Amino acid sequence: MGLRAPPLLRAVRAARRRRGLQLTRTTSSQAPVFDRELKLRHRARAAAEDAAGVAYLREAAAARVVGRLRDVAAREEKKTALDLGCGAGHLRAALEADAVDGDVAGGIATLAQCDAAPEAVAACASRAPAAGFATTAVVADEERPLPFDDASFDAVLSSGSLHWVNDLPGALREVRRVLRPDGVFIGALAGAGTLGELQYCRRPARGRGIERRRPGVRVAARAGLAAAEEERTGGVAPRCSPAARLADCGQLLHQAGFRLITVDVERVQVDFGDAFLLLDDLQRMGEQHAPLAPAPLGRDALLAAAAAYQHMFPAAGDATALRASFEMTFLIGWAPDTNEPAPVRARGPG
């Protein structure tokens, strides 16, 4: 008969196993982060209301994706491309605006547009024929297997939709699957620094470092959303969407099977008259938070956070306005060319 551990030690080991199992479940790549159905309703409303007046972020991301496509992709042959998460067609508009005398970036001859929101796909399909290339529009969810055969596209492009995908590693594997050998993926998504000012206002200030940076900030920060909400409800609910960190993006592309990976960041700053105009723009463009368990926010807490935001982050040269920063993370990866020779391994002695 073998020796058994004392009861107390066995209990400690069992507790550790339970904690380990729980940690494994909650950190799984399959665990949902966003309410996908709610986000699709946001997208549908933005497409139905024609959010062209507030689509500046999607337009800026699309223009930068097209610029990168022109920089990295040759135009020696006609090519097919996929616009993943097309929205209202901002990428197509950017391709048309960039084309000169029929010279389309990347040599694209056919652009397939897909989105999980049928209203967005319908808006794309209703537009006039594109100049210089053909277009198609289909309903396809970035969170599910794409309805395309393996190696269907020379390029897969995405401008401003992948940060709402619950399983980003799985979506990148699907992108890799539908790419032809030596095809390129260029994507833009919101980075972790997006709306950093708003997230900062949500946290009560701690430590003297904040006081040293700017007099009066500590008092204002304590009047932020987190402190106001905690005072009124006894708790704080997450109200800012999590985003992929720059350090993780390259690893995600590598795990999906891409090579020659490039990741870079551009920051865009937009000034608003007040915090409510910022929140209104986010809602109209379909970019508001989509939590799994929505928690109503009281009017008093929202007013307190807006006042803190105005005090802490005024626009440059205009104390009556405030600034909001948006971080655009750009991913570039190439599908391996199957015709490339395998690397030669050095032989050992003998």
From TrEMBL:
CDD domains: AdoMet_MTases. GO terms for biological process: methylation. One of its GO terms (molecular function) is S-adenosylmethionine-dependent methyltransferase activity. Keywords: Methyltransferase, Transferase. Gene3D superfamilies: Vaccinia Virus protein VP39 (3.40.50.150). Residues 82-186 form the Methyltransferase type domain. InterPro entries: Malonyl-ACP_OMT, Methyltransf_11, SAM-dependent_MTases_sf. PANTHER family: ARGININE-HYDROXYLASE NDUFAF5, MITOCHONDRIAL. This is Methyltransferase type 11 domain-containing protein.
